[in-house]
């Protein structure tokens, strides 16, 4: 009855507003110019679909703020004692030890506390494997084909995942959400700003490049070998990648030929869009970054060979527990390593691990990253980095805390293509800032306040800045 009443009311409103003009509607074809065929919708003939899912992110409101008398880790390797961070218009205005806050700034005395950039997780599955972890929420792996490059993680992200709020309480302001690793090519990743939001578009990092999740090793060969399908071996894995890139190159050439003819005014029909090949062609053109799940050193070298064969670049190897064995090669190739300190032994390819993996990459001049791949670890990235730092020092590597801070700030920003905007406390960058009650490399440290674009997004001591997801509210949490 309520539905019927609502429908009647809507119709009445439409009539009053002049929308229900049945007399002006005709089923007969129009004549003259209006009879011309409508052009195809943009998404069908453009060869690109990103605009349809564009970011609608808007920064939270902020005020000019000065955080004074803190120990500051800039995220770029530097440590400043008794320093000040100035925030204005959502940006870092200045950072240093001899700064006097201008008048009209909110001056916050953080003496005895520590200030860092917002932490960045370069490997997360929040939203695509949300909490509670039930089959209805399992949306991270499209295990229907070894190559699912056409799927996009953002089309699975559930913004109500309580994990986003917990990650923010751990200091995480930006995260890369990836598809799972069951396929050779798993699909596109999405970079998110960690704010409470109704839609994934409201969280999307404006202008951040897409990533492509690839996986080598045991996962894809186990998934498809158990179904008596290819790949069932590592050589089958490699053949699958190479075939995919051959097809992608052919697809890219067809679109290039079409556009060249169209630019010359020649008659030409656009190729039929293929979501799988469109993503792969984006990689070949340098528009989409490659985030490659891989554990063994020998397989990482094989993946570098495939990238060289087809002319694309691997941005980062993820997990990469044997990266220390080829640290010099990875540094030379400028490939980041997103790893943990002590996750190992879950399968044979994850057996030969060392806790000092990240420090050894760092010492070789490479790009070391500590990431989560886990809804619990994402709340404690600082502790995972501290464990890696301790292991590195025990192994004889002289690494400062300022340098180790880059593993969870600037380096992951680089690996996901946003280091020009965030990841360090430098003038002009987004004011993504965390205030810690203790040294963040202490197991006892807690994030007291988290700023995104200069606005308070979390405050441990103020419930107004402790968001609860709609899902939790529906379950009675936080009441």
Automatic annotation (TrEMBL):
Pfam families: Amidohydro_1. Gene3D superfamilies: Metal-dependent hydrolases (3.20.20.140), Urease, subunit C, domain 1 (2.30.40.10). Residues 375-446 form the Amidohydrolase-related domain. Residues 1-23 form the signal peptide. The keyword Lipoprotein does not apply. Keywords: Hydrolase, Signal. GO terms for molecular function: hydrolase activity, acting on carbon-nitrogen (but not peptide) bonds. The keyword Signal applies. It comes from the Bacteria. InterPro entries: Amidohydro-rel (IPR006680), Metal-dep_hydrolase_composite (IPR011059), Metal_Hydrolase (IPR032466), Metallo-dep_Hydrolase (IPR051781). This is Imidazolonepropionase-like amidohydrolase. The lineage of its organism: Bacteria, Pseudomonadati, Pseudomonadota, Alphaproteobacteria, Caulobacterales.
């Amino acid at each position: 009855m309520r539905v019927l009443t609502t429908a009647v009311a809507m119709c009445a409103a439409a009539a009053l507003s002049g929308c229900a003009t049945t007399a002006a509607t005709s089923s007969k074809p129009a004549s003259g110019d209006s009879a011309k065929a409508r052009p195809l919708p943009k998404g069908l003939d453009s060869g690109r679909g990103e605009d349809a899912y564009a970011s609608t992110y808007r920064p939270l409101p902020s005020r000019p703020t000065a955080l004074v008398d803190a120990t500051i880790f800039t995220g770029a390797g530097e440590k400043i004692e008794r320093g000040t961070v100035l925030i204005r218009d959502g940006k870092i205005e200045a950072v240093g030890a001899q700064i006097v806050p201008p008048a009209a700034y909110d001056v916050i005395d953080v003496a005895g506390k520590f200030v860092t950039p917002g932490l960045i997780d370069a490997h997360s599955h929040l939203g695509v494997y949300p909490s509670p972890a039930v089959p209805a929420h399992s949306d991270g792996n499209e295990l229907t084909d070894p190559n699912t490059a056409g799927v996009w993680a953002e089309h699975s992200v559930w913004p109500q995942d309580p994990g986003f709020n917990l990650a923010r309480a751990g200091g995480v302001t930006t995260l890369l959400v990836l598809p799972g690793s069951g396929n050779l090519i798993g699909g596109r990743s999405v970079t998110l700003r960690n704010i409470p939001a109704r839609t994934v578009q409201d969280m999307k990092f404006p202008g951040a490049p897409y990533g492509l999740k690839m996986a080598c090793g045991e996962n894809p060969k186990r998934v498809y070998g158990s179904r008596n399908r290819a790949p069932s071996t590592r050589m089958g894995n490699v053949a699958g990648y190479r075939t995919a890139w051959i097809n992608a190159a052919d697809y890219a050439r067809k679109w290039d030929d079409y556009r060249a003819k169209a630019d010359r005014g020649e008659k030409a029909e656009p190729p039929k869009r293929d979501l799988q090949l469109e993503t792969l062609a984006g990689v070949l053109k340098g528009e989409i970054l490659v985030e490659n799940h891989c554990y063994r050193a020998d397989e990482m070298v094989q993946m570098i060979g495939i990238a060289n064969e087809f002319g694309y670049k691997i941005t980062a190897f993820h997990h990469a527990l044997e990266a220390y064995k080829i640290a010099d090669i990875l540094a030379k190739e400028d490939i980041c390593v997103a790893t943990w300190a002590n996750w190992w032994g879950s399968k044979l390819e994850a057996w030969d691990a060392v806790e000092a993996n990240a420090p050894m990459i760092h010492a070789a001049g490479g790009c070391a990253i500590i990431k989560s791949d886990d809804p619990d670890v994402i709340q404690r990235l600082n502790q995972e980095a501290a464990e890696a730092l301790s292991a590195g020092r025990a192994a004889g590597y002289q690494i400062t805390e300022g340098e180790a801070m880059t593993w969870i700030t600037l380096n992951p920003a680089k690996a996901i293509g946003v280091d020009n905007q965030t990841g360090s406390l430098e003038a002009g960058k987004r004011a993504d800032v965390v205030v810690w009650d203790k040294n963040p490399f202490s197991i006892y440290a807690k994030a007291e306040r988290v700023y995104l674009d200069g606005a308070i997004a979390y405050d441990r001591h103020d419930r107004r800045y402790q968001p609860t997801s709609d899902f939790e509210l529906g379950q009675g949490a936080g009441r």
